[in-house]
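Quiz preparation item.
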C-alpha cells in the first residue's frame, strides 16, 4: 500500500502534495517524495521515514505559479526503505510515482538493461519511467509513448508520470490499485482516496481498472482499451470523517470489510507458489533456535495462541505463549536457543515492550510481528515482520488480528522450510490454502444481513460462551473478547472439551453458546460437546459448514477445504456478530468505554 497525490494548476504545489500525503500516510510511511515541474524548472525531494522528514527537507522550497506535480508516500514492497528506492523515480527527464506491483518488472528491467538503461533503485516502479522514455526516445509523442508503456505493464498499478517532454501534462493509469481525479474548475487533482482532496476539489471521478490518459489545459482525456471515452464526475463528499470511513458506519465495520484485501497485501511477495519468502529474516536467522516463546496482550495474544498450534504441528518446533503482563513478573527461565517473538498491532503496548526488553537482557534473539513500522517494539527487536494491515482505527482489533495470524502461519511454514521439517507436498497444500484465504474473508450482503437479523436475539441473557477446539479455541477467545469489548456483555472463550469440567453448570436457556464447528478439524468431538450443552437447554448458535439439527441458530459457512480457511471465515462471522449486537445496544463501536487503542501503561 502506498499513497499518491498529484496536482496541476497555479497554487502552491508543495503544500497541496504534503497535506495530501499526510492524509494518506496510513497507507505507508517508509519514505516519501515529491516532484514538481514549473516552467523549465524541475525539482525533486525525497526523505526516508515519516512525512515530517520530507516537510523539513522542503521547508525553504516554494512552488507557486502554474506547474505540474506528483507526490508519494511509500510502503516498501521491492527494495528497502531508502532514498534511492523512494518515489518519485527519475528517468533521464521524467518522474513517476506508483502504487501496486508490476508483476513483470524483472522481464522489463532485463530488456531495458540490455538496451543500456541503468537502474538506480531496486524497485519495480523504476521500470515504468524507463519504459516510457524508451518509447519517447524512439520518436513517439509523449502520450503515445505513455500508451505503449501502459500496454506493457502487468500487475497492479495506479501511476502518475510527469516529463520535461510535456511540461504542462500529467499522465495517469490505473489497474487494480485505487486512484481518483478531483476537479476544481481548471485545476485537477489526483489521489489514492478522497481525503487528500476534500476541501480543495468539488467534483470527483473514480478511475476504473484499465483506464489511463492525460490532463492538459484543465481538461482530462480519458482512455480505455476502446479509445478515448466520455466520463461523468460526481460531487465530492465534504465531510472528512465520513470520507475516511468510506461509506461504512464505523471504522471497525470498514476494517472487517477490508480484511480480504489487506490479506492480499500481507502475502504479497512473501507467499510464492511453492515457497515462503521472508526478506526480513537472514538466511541463518533460525540457526541454533530450537524453541519459540511468544509474548503479547489481548487480541495479539490470541493470534499467538493460534500460532503455537501451527508452529508445533507444521514446523515441529516447540512453542509456548505467555501473556506479557504475566511473563514480566514470573522470573521466567530463558535459554538462548529460544527465539523470543512479540506480537503487537500498535508496537507500543507497555507490557509487551517490557517483556521484550527482559528477553533481550537475557540474551535471546528477538523478532516482532507488528503493524506499525518504527514503533518502539519494532525498534527494540532484532528484526520485525510487518503485518501490512494499514492503520487500524477501531479500538476493537479486527484486521490486525487477521494479518497477525496470517504472518504467523507464514512464519510457521517458513520455519518448517528452513529446518526441513515440513514436507514439500504439505507446504504446497498450505500455500494453496493461504492463497484461498482472501476469498473466505469477503463479507457478503447475505452474511451481514443474517448476522444483523440474528443479533436481536442476543441482547440479554446471563452470558456467552464461545467454544472451539484446537486453533478454534483461540478463535473462541478472540470472538468472546470482541463481543465483550463493544457490547459490554459477559462473554468467555472456552475449549469445547473443557466445558464439562465446570462451566456446564451454568447451562440454561439464558446461556448463549457460540459454537465454532469446522468440518476439517475434530468435527465429531465438538459436536458431542455442543450436544452436551444442548441437552442442558443452553441456547446454541452454531457456526459451521455442516447443518446441525440441535442449533437454535445456525450460520452456515461456505469454505471448508482447510482448517485455516475455515478459521478466517468463522473469524469474520464472530466479528460481525459482535458489531451488530453492539449497534443494537447503542454503544460506541469504535471507541468503547474504558478502552484505549494503544495501552502504553502497565
Ligand atoms: C483488541 O481488540 C484490543 N483492543 C486489545 O486487546 C489489544 O489487542 C491489546 O491491547 C494489545 O495491543 P497491541 O496489539 O497493540 O499490542
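Solution:
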Amino acid at each position: 500500500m502506498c499513497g499518491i497525490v498529484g496536482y496541476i494548476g497555479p497554487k502552491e504545489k508543495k503544500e497541496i502534495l504534503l497535506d495530501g500525503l499526510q492524509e494518506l500516510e496510513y497507507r505507508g510511511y517508509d519514505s516519501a517524495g515529491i516532484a514538481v515541474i514549473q516552467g523549465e524548472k524541475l525539482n525533486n525531494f525525497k526523505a526516508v521515514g515519516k512525512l515530517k522528514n520530507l516537510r523539513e527537507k522542503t521547508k525553504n522550497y516554494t512552488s507557486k505559479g502554474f506547474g505540474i506535480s506528483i507526490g508519494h508516500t511509500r510502503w516498501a514492497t521491492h527494495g528497502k526503505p531508502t532514498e534511492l528506492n523512494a518515489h518519485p523515480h527519475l528517468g533521464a527527464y521524467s518522474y513517476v510515482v506508483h502504487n501496486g506491483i508490476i508483476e513483470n518488472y524483472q522481464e522489463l528491467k532485463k530488456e531495458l538493461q540490455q538496451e543500456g538503461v541503468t537502474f538506480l533503485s531496486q524497485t519495480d516502479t523504476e521500470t515504468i519511467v524507463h519504459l516510457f522514455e524508451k518509447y519517447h526516445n524512439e520518436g513517439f509523442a509523449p502520450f503515445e509513448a505513455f500508451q505503449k508503456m501502459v500496454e506493457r505493464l502487468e500487475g497492479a498499478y495506479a501511476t502518475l508520470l510527469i516529463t520535461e517532454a510535456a511540461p504542462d501534462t500529467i499522465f495517469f493509469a490505473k489497474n487494480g490499485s485505487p486512484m481518483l481525479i478531483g476537479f476544481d474548475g481548471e485545476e485537477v487533482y489526483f489521489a489514492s482516496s478522497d481525503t487528500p482532496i476534500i476541501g480543495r476539489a468539488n467534483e470527483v471521478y473514480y478511475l476504473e481498472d484499465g483506464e489511463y490518459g492525460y490532463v492538459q489545459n484543465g481538461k482530462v482525456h480519458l482512455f480505455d482499451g476502446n479509445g478515448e471515452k466520455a466520463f461523468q464526475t460526481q460531487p465530492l463528499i465534504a465531510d472528512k470523517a465520513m470520507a475516511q470511513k468510506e461509506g461504512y458506519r464505523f471504522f471497525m465495520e470498514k476494517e472487517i470489510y477490508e480484511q480480504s484485501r489487506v490479506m492480499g497485501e500481507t502475502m504479497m511477495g512473501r507467499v510464492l507458489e511453492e515457497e515462503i519468502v521472508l526478506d526480513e529474516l537472514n538466511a541463518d536467522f533460525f540457526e541454533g533456535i530450537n524453541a519459540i516463546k511468544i509474548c503479547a496482550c489481548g487480541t495479539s495474544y490470541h493470534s499467538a495462541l493460534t500460532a503455537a498450534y501451527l508452529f508445533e504441528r507444521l514446523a515441529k518446533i516447540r512453542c509456548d505463549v505467555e501473556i506479557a503482563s504475566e511473563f514480566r513478573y514470573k522470573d521466567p527461565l530463558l535459554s538462548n536457543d529460544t527465539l523470543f517473538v512479540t506480537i503487537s498491532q500498535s508496537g507500543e503496548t507497555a507490557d509487551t515492550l517490557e517483556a521484550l526488553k527482559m528477553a533481550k537482557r537475557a540474551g535471546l534473539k528477538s523478532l516482532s510481528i507488528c503493524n506499525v513500522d518504527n514503533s518502539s517494539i519494532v525498534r527494540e527487536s532484532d528484526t520485525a515482520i510487518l503485518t501490512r494491515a494499514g492503520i487500524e482505527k477501531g479500538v476493537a482489533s479486527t484486521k490486525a488480528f487477521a494479518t497477525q495470524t496470517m504472518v504467523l502461519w507464514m512464519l510457521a511454514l517458513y520455519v518448517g522450510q528452513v529446518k526441513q521439517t515440513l514436507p514439500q507436498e504439505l507446504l504446497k497444500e498450505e500455500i494453496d490454502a493461504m492463497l484461498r484465504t482472501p476469498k473466505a474473508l469477503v463479507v457478503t450482503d447475505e452474511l451481514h444481513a443474517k448476522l444483523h437479523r440474528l443479533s436481536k436475539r442476543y441482547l440479554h441473557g446471563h452470558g456467552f460462551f464461545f467454544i472451539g477446539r484446537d486453533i478454534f479455541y483461540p478463535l473462541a477467545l478472540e470472538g468472546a473478547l470482541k463481543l465483550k469489548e463493544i457490547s459490554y456483555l459477559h462473554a468467555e472463550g472456552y475449549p469445547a472439551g473443557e466445558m464439562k469440567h465446570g462451566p456446564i453448570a451454568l447451562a440454561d436457556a439464558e446461556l448463549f453458546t457460540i459454537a465454532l464447528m469446522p468440518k476439517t478439524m475434530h468435527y465429531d468431538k465438538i459436536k458431542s460437546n455442543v450436544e452436551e450443552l444442548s441437552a442442558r437447554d443452553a441456547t446454541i448458535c452454531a457456526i459451521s459448514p455442516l447443518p446441525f439439527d440441535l442449533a437454535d441458530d445456525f450460520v452456515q459457512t461456505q469454505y471448508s477445504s482447510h482448517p485455516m480457511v475455515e478459521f478466517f471465515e468463522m473469524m469474520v462471522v464472530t466479528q460481525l456478530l459482535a458489531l451488530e449486537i453492539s449497534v443494537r445496544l447503542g454503544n460506541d463501536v469504535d471507541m468503547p468505554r474504558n478502552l484505549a487503542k494503544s495501552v502504553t501503561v502497565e
